[in-house]
Specification:
The complex is a heterodimer of chains A (about 240) and B (about 450). Chain A contains 9 helices and 9 strands. Chain A has about 240 residues and is α/β, with parallel strands linked by helices. In chain A, helix 1 runs parallel beside helix 2 (about 40-50). Classes of the chains: A alpha/beta (about 240), B alpha+beta (about 450). The interface of A and B includes residues 43, 46 and 186 of A.
């Protein structure tokens, strides 16, 4: 045991759960936070039995921003590492038709995570230590017709994380931005993803642990994505707007 | 998606769903017949269903463990490898393990797997306390020897055809170390190998590598490998630093499909001769880690690719004790004549077994791989005929060539399996490509 604690926000997601396993295997005590947290009781047993670390459940609703300070106050200990894997893609076609759907996606992916990290960042800064890990997305690098609502929310979160990193760099608090490409999760179930570009959740979990340990700033899980996004970033807008990607 | 078993033959386009909870299973299984799939280690089409294959690997949580008794409760998609990684360092090891640890608990129950200790401890079902099964009527039933006993006994070895196994309670066996005291006994022919097996009934583990291509006086020459869990006091200083043999050894991976000639009769013959003499030379006792002893092939990830793109089939039968020698001799003669044996041929003495539809029975089991070629189906038919003539039966977890007629000729329990399927109406909800082929 390391005596350290990791808080996993949006614990029901596959990436979050994989990260929880990796940190538990490395000896971290685990705080799992999600909506309807009670339904994660089997996961508590699983992680406790496998790694023999303390695991606790905490109720949090990303959209109920007014409750976030109380949520952080109620944690038994302020964690050393906080991972935010809260994300909600929605259906792009529905998002386009409905302002309500669009707002729900924007709030889930940007407002909620930013609110939680604002509070945690300030607590970490007061303490003078800690690592915040934001799971954002390559979809936030450039808006595309097929998922720009989700992508723009993630773009906001990515910019928020980079600003936070800049602000806290001299205060002992580190911020990691994770830009996984395709990941084989429940969110992408049914999509026809190319195997070579698609990471398993466990890979993302290991990459996050390594990034926290080594103090890295921005990670792509499969390095091919760094190249892909470099190219996508540099396509002139006049051409990009006509492309089907 | 395109799916196959471990033998990569046959391949089928299957609609696959990967549920996380009961509700998602029920949705995936709506209005169609489905089969549950674990980690895809059955060789043939046991876990293929083009209409609905349910990937159970999302059910991967260990739910309870008692350090005093070694009892585990786990969801059916948990890998045996995870059970070992979690509990071996606490002094507990699977009471029965097949030759790969990359199988799920659900798959182990459905195939009622056996291991190198079958002659002594029976199949996995012997250490299974209970399981929860999603039945044809949509109800989840707890099945044990006392509760829904019929369901319990038909589901162990039932190839997933009684329902979907959700979670199970089973027992591990206590060990002091992760090392095995292995003793290798060379046997110059089949009779000698059988004599060793009969004489070594007290050994915890026994298995033989058998040379399927040697003929004449050395027909059936073998290396019988006996094993015992090493006690802590028996470890040398080198092993004492790693008592549970937990140091990571990186797996090698077969990087591409081997072309067909690599496994031609000459190369296999040469390999077998070398392997036998190397084994005979090094006969005697040594300490090996559990991975090398139980799972030598797991060290070569994706070893199924050595058989080339067309895949392979594994023939595994068990011949009852009284007819074992004659049956094995006839099988070896047919294999040598076909000149197609692989270097992965295994002979093992099995013990008695009470079960409804499980594979094992008291006698000798022979297992070997054949790359799929034009005439493979004919070779399997011939080997199956020989086994049937000697009262033998077949391991459905390995099978991809058996026919409905030959299954019935081999296994008189087949009609009662069918009756159970109709009465429980599981036949209306669960089927695999294999169950359709075998009409069960």
């Amino acid at each position: 045991m390391t005596g350290k604690t990791v808080l996993v926000l949006g614990a029901r997601s596959d990436i979050a759960m994989a990260a929880a396993h990796c940190f538990a295997a490395a000896g971290y005590a685990v705080q799992l936070a999600a909506r309807n947290a009670g339904s994660l009781a089997d996961d508590v047993s699983d992680i406790t039995i496998r790694y023999r670390v303390p695991v606790s459940l905490h109720e949090v609703d990303a959209l109920a921003v007014e409750s976030h300070a109380a949520f952080v106050d109620a944690l038994p200990v302020l964690p050393d590492v906080a991972i935010c894997a809260i994300g909600y893609m929605g259906d792009q076609a529905e998002n386009e038709r409905s302002v309500e759907r669009t707002v729900a996606v924007l709030r889930s992916n940007f407002e909620g995570p930013a609110s939680l990290f604002t509070i945690l960042a300030n607590r970490f800064a007061d303490r003078g230590s800690g690592t915040l890990v934001g799971v954002s997305s390559v979809a936030g690098i450039r808006g595309r017709a097929t998922n720009y609502v989700y992508g723009s929310a993630k773009a906001g979160f990515t910019a928020f994380l980079s600003g936070l990193r800049n602000r806290l760099a001299k205060q002992g608090v580190h911020v990691v931005t994770v830009l996984p490409g395709f990941v084989d999760t429940r969110m992408t179930a049914g999509m026809d993803l190319p195997a070579k570009l698609t990471a398993q959740p466990e890979e993302v979990g290991r990459a996050i642990l390594a990034a926290v340990t080594k103090g890295r700033d921005v990670i792509y899980v499969r390095s091919i994505w760094r190249l892909i996004m470099l190219i996508i970033r540099h396509i002139p807008e006049a051409i990009f707007k006509r492309m089907k990607i | 998606m395109m799916l196959s078993g471990w033998g990569r033959h046959p391949r089928m386009e299957c609609t696959v769903s990967r549920p996380r909870d009961l509700r998602e299973i029920l949705t995936a299984a709506q209005n169609k017949r489905v089969i549950a799939r674990g980690n895809g280690r059955a060789y043939g089409d046991s876990a293929l269903n083009p209409a609905g294959t349910i990937d159970m690997r999302g059910f991967s949580r260990i739910l309870a463990f008692d350090q005093e008794s070694g009892r585990v409760v786990a969801e059916s998609g948990v890998l045996l490898a995870d059970i070992i990684a979690t509990f071996l360092p606490r002094g507990w090891f699977p009471a029965v393990t097949p030759g790969t640890k990359f199988v799920t608990i659900g798959g182990m129950i459905a195939a009622d797997v056996h291991g190198k200790n079958h002659h002594k401890h029976g199949s996995f079902a012997s250490f299974l306390d209970w399981m929860d099964v999603l039945c044809a009527d949509g109800e989840v039933r707890r099945a044990s020897r006392d509760e829904n006993a019929e369901l319990f006994h038909w589901t162990t070895g039932g190839m997933g055809l009684t329902g979907i196994i959700l979670r199970a309670g089973f027992r591990l066996t206590p060990v002091e170390t992760g090392w095995i005291r292995q003793r290798t006994v060379p046997a110059r022919d089949l009779s000698a190998a059988m004599t060793v097996f009969e004489a070594e009934q007290a050994a915890t583990y026994s298995v033989a590598w058998i040379d399927c291509l040697s003929t004449g006086r050395s027909t059936g020459r073998s290396l019988v490998m006996l094993g015992e869990h090493a006690l802590a006091a028996e470890l040398a200083p080198r092993q004492k630093s790693d008592p549970f043999a937990g140091k990571r050894r990186a797996g090698r991976r077969i990087p591409f499909d081997f072309p067909g000639f690599v496994l031609g009769p000459l190369t296999v013959k040469a390999f077998n001769t070398l392997y036998y003499h190397k084994g005979a030379w090094g006969a005697g006792e040594k300490l090996v880690d559990f991975d090398s002893y139980f799972y030598p092939l797991d060290a070569i990830l994706e070893w199924n690719r050595i058989y080339g793109r067309r895949g392979f089939g594994q023939f595994q039968c068990v011949i009852p004790l009284a007819a074992a020698k004659a049956g094995l001799e006839a099988l070896l003669a047919a294999i040598a004549k076909a000149g197609q044996g692989s270097f992965l041929a295994v002979l093992k003495r099995m013990g008695p077994q009470q079960s409804c539809f499980s594979f094992p029975m008291e006698g000798y089991t022979l297992a070997l791989d054949f790359p799929v070629r034009r005439d493979t189906a004919r070779l399997f038919a011939e080997l199956e005929r020989i086994a049937i003539d000697h009262g033998g039966r077949f391991y459905l977890a390995k099978d991809s060539f058996l026919t409905a007629d030959r299954l019935r000729a081999a296994d008189p329990r087949t009609p009662s399996f069918g009756t159970m399927r109709r009465q429980s109406r599981s036949i209306e909800r669960f089927c695999s490509a294999q169950s359709e082929r075998l009409d069960i």
